[in-house]
Amino acid sequence: MNEPRQMRITSSFAVALTLVLAPAVPATAQESAPPMLTPPGEGPGDDGAPNVLPPPGDENSPMIVPPPDESPDETPDAFGSAPSAEDEPDAAPVDQAEDAVRPDESREEKIDRLFSELRKQPDGAKAGRIAGRIEREWRRSGSATIDLLMQRAATAMGKKDNAAAMDVLDQTLVLDPAYAEAWNRRATLNFAMDRWGKSLADIEQTLAREPRHWGALMGLAMILERLDEKEKAFDTYMRVLAVYPALKSAQDAAGRLADEITGPVI
């Protein structure tokens, strides 16, 4: 690696640490485009495997094709937490005062406000509570039917009944293809089933609907690491830190990759 690239990566990770400690951080990740993916048989590859294409303007980045014989040891928590009892249609919010939508703001405005708070919060525990509130908003589809299907999918995934979970998630996406969290859940399930290409395609759909979804970004970064695309993984972890600076798993991963890419500092 040439010296300018080393300096850029080292500088980028320094920015990540600054994001964690600074009182305010610009919402850069909202403006960045998610990686472009092509489904099986529709990309430049000739083996039917899904391809990951570089973002627009990045003509030098190589295409990534998931090796069919490699698989991770376990599903990462990176895709975000699954629906829980508090998400059931008749359940009361964990904290009604915190979760209530203000009279003068829409649900989307509430999520934007929470992301603003998340970017400014350096304390990991407090940031985690804000992140939990965002995730609850993501999981509230506005449809009792969709919420029930997501609960059933979560139950099936918990029992390792992948076929049943996939069937329910497929039904959910037929009913509401605009629901980002259903795409994210299916990305998680495909990852657990070692179907990396399908997981990447579902991650793309998640990020197209919610570019700030740090769980989907973390899942993407972990897949890129397993494909030995360390620089792309590092850049993706940096996108996570732009929206969730206090996320320790992203901090640790970015720091580790910065060391691996640039080598030890002498």
Question: Can you give a write-up of this model?
Answer:
By secondary structure, the chain is mainly alpha-helical. The protein has one domain (about 5-85, about 140-260): Serine Threonine Protein Phosphatase 5, Tetratricopeptide repeat. Helix content is about 55%, strand content about 0%. It has eleven helices and two strands; from the N terminus they run H-E-E-H-H-H-H-H-H-H-H-H-H. A two-stranded antiparallel ribbon has the order 1-2. The radius of gyration is 19 Å and the shape is globular. It starts with a helix and ends with a helix. Residues about 15-75 and about 85-95 have low confidence and may be disordered.
Within the largest sheet, what's the order of strands? 1-2
The helix fraction, in percent, is: 55-70%
CATH homolog superfamily = Tetratricopeptide repeat domain
Mean pLDDT score: 75
List keywords for this structure.
266 residues, mainly alpha, Serine Threonine Protein Phosphatase 5, Tetratricopeptide repeat, 11 helices, 2 strands
